[in-house]
Amino acid sequence: MSATERTGLGQPCWVSLLTADLPAAQDFYSAVLGWTYRPGSLGEGFMVALSDGQPVAGLSDAARGLGVAVNWTCYFAVGEADLVASRIRERGGTVAVGPLTVGRGRVALAADPAGAVFGFWEGEKLSSWSIGAGSAPAWLELRTRDAFAAAMFYGEIFEWAVERPDRCEVRYEDDAVTVESHGRTVACLRGGAVEADPDPRIRPRWHVYFRVDDVEKAVEAALAAGGALVSEPAHSRAGRAATLRDPEGGLFTITDRDETGCA
């Protein structure tokens, strides 16, 4: 999360894989997504994944040290990490790690009341990194039991829909809540119908969608590199997509490069 500017409070600002074996993770994602790497600015054990020379995501070997499961984590930009941490606790969420001073900012890992893990970052952000643009991930989606309750939680902790130009807006649809910044959708919260009964079969989780040129070929590469196929390639609201698990258990989704969106 090296940085050039602070902007877009409450919106996604980075995604990162917390892994226990950084070299193995680098090899796997290079084979599947074609990434190259450079050292991150947060110290030893942090790498920045690149696509066409541009930042895509972070990889860190901190999973074992933090005592957390290997997972892809979405981070949201905040102005005051301690204030956001307090809001999370007050609303039934959990702050598992931090806020900690890391590099030129402060970071924390938390879980919403349904158990979905996310992070937040106080500090500067990459000005060139934005969901759905350039080399950044195509899409972020929270799959949860109750999209309406999730929207209330995240809206309150990140101050979405407060009618300020530096905050995100939300739009309620039949079965999803979309999060927009300056007219562009940056995330989607999906359950059953927005005001329907919670679905107990869903394990709440934020999903990161990475763009590929060919979904089937990327699936083949993942299987050859020791990964597993979680959901078969199929057309979804974010384009043709498939969900994969890396050799350490990190879940992620791949989608056609030219098709993204919640609607």
3D architecture notes:
This protein has 263 residues and is of the alpha+beta class. The chain has one domain: 2,3-Dihydroxybiphenyl 1,2-Dioxygenase, domain 1. Helices cover 18% and strands 40% of the residues. It contains five helices and 16 strands. The chain has helices at residues 22-33, 63-66, 81-90, 147-158, 215-224; strands at 12-18, 36-39, 46-51, 54-60, 71-78, 94-102, 105-111, 117-122, 139-143, 169-172, 176-181, 184-190, 205-212, 228-236, 239-245, 251-256. It has an eight-stranded mixed beta sheet with strand order 2-3-4-1-5-8-7-6, covered by helices on one side. Strands 10-11-12-9-13-16-15-14 form an eight-stranded mixed beta sheet. Helix 1 runs antiparallel to helix 5 and helix 3 (81-90) runs antiparallel to helix 4 (147-158). The radius of gyration is 17 Å and the shape is globular. Mean pLDDT is 84; it is low at 1-7. InterPro entries: Anthracycline_SecMetBiosynth, Glyas_Bleomycin-R_OHBP_Dase, Glyas_Fos-R_dOase_dom, Glyoxalase_6, VOC_core. Residues 11-123, 136-257 form the VOC domain. It comes from Streptomyces luteosporeus. This is VOC family protein.
Number of domains: 1
Tell me the strand order in the biggest sheet.
2-3-4-1-5-8-7-6
Number of separate strands: 16
Q: What fraction, in percent, of the residue positions are helical? A: 10-25%
Unreliable residue runs: 1-7
Q: Classify the secondary structure makeup into a structural class.
A: alpha+beta
Q: What CATH architecture label applies?
A: Roll
The CATH class designation is Alpha Beta
Characterize the overall form.
Answer: globular
Give the SSE order as H and E letters. Answer: EHEEEHEHEEEEHEEEEHEEE
Q: Any idea of the CATH topology? A: 2,3-Dihydroxybiphenyl 1,2-Dioxygenase, domain 1
CATH superfamily: 2,3-Dihydroxybiphenyl 1,2-Dioxygenase, domain 1
**What's the total helix number?**
5
Percent of residues in β-strands = 35-45%
Query: How large, in whole angstroms, is the Cα Rg?
Result: 17 Å
Spatial separation of the terminal alpha carbons: 29 Å
Largest sheet report: 8 strands, mixed
- Give the rounded overall mean pLDDT: 84
